[in-house]
Write a structure and sequence with these properties.
The chain has 165 residues and is of the alpha/beta class. It has a single domain, classed as Rossmann fold (3-Layer(aba) Sandwich), CATH 3.40.50. The protein has helices at residues 16-23, 30-44, 70-84, 101-119, 129-144; strands at 2-5, 60-66, 88-93, 123-126, 153-156.
Length: 165
């Protein structure tokens, strides 16, 4: 079985209030706000769901995570390796349409879904309810259009309740 997880809010604890604070900062505070966010991510994020809890030893595990850039992807890969060793492979996506709302969700959902198809995922967990809803809709359309044959179970996991769509 191939199991894929989102990183922030699923594999590692993430304080969304810090992200909202940084993204909503005034223009003159943007630099300091994003520096504070980076410090938070580097120092204050602990493991949340251990990926092996849902897996057998011979299952393949992936982290399908949105990254703003190559540096972010490298930091996330380093974090994964530190906490989970070589058990979880990173599969970064680069959604560049902001942090919230329809344009962001549609963009990231499509990119994550394409990665799930590429790796042959059977199960995917993400904490963003809007992302899961849109990915399910896209996947249903792909299956109906026979663009993709296997069915992927996509579950919302985590305490994020509000949809930003």
């Amino acid at each position: 079985m191939i199991i894929a997880y989102d990183m922030d809010g699923v594999l590692r604890r993430m304080d969304l209030s810090m992200l909202k604070l940084a993204s909503g900062a005034s223009e003159d505070m943007q630099g300091a706000a994003w520096d504070a966010w980076a410090m938070h991510v580097d120092r204050e994020t602990d493991p949340l769901l251990h990926p092996s809890l849902l897996a057998l030893p011979d299952d393949s595990l992936f982290c399908v995570t949105n990254c703003g850039n190559k540096t972010s992807a490298e930091k996330k890969a380093k974090w994964l390796k530190h906490y989970y060793g070589d058990r979880v492979q990173i599969a970064p996506v680069f959604g560049d349409k902001g942090l919230w709302g329809k344009e962001y969700v549609d963009n990231v959902a499509r990119k994550k879904l394409d990665v799930l198809y590429d790796i042959g995922a059977d199960l995917y967990l993400d904490d963003d309810p809007a992302l899961i809803r849109v990915m399910r809709e896209m996947h249903k359309a792909d299956v109906a259009g026979q663009n993709i044959i296997p069915y992927i179970v996509m579950l919302k996991y985590g305490n994020w309740l509000e949809e930003h769509y």
